[in-house]
Amino acid sequence: MYYKFNGFTQRLVGAAASAAYNPQGLKPIVSTESPALIFGTTTKLASDLPATDSFLGKNKVPDLQKLFQKADGLPVHLKRGVPDKLLYRTTMALTIGGTIYCLVALYMASQPRNQ
User: Fold this and answer.
1) Predicted TM-score of the model (pTM)
2) Residues 94, 100, 105, 106, CA torsion sign
3) Fewer Cβ atoms within 10 A, N terminus or C terminus of the chain?
4) Is the distance from CB of 34 to CB of 40 less than 8 angstroms?
């Protein structure tokens, strides 16, 4: 016996072999002709663009890979020196300050007001 999915009841129901092999929503292959052109403008392929015009800077990725993969015992977020340490410490200070502020606000909200 063959089965197909019923879209109305959301269940499998018995079906003929032809209905099971051509389920709902799927259409047989029509033609492989390309559709009509909607916009008449042509686009440039990436291979047509000159490589030197797209980016004129130096590739920093190999240098950064060497820096971050160096086994010096430092975590990745502190490998670049003073700017990383400043950013890390600022983030930690704001996190701790925000936690303390939330706890104080929660304590003040939990106390009843005096009449």
Assistant:
1) 0.44
2) positive
3) C
4) no
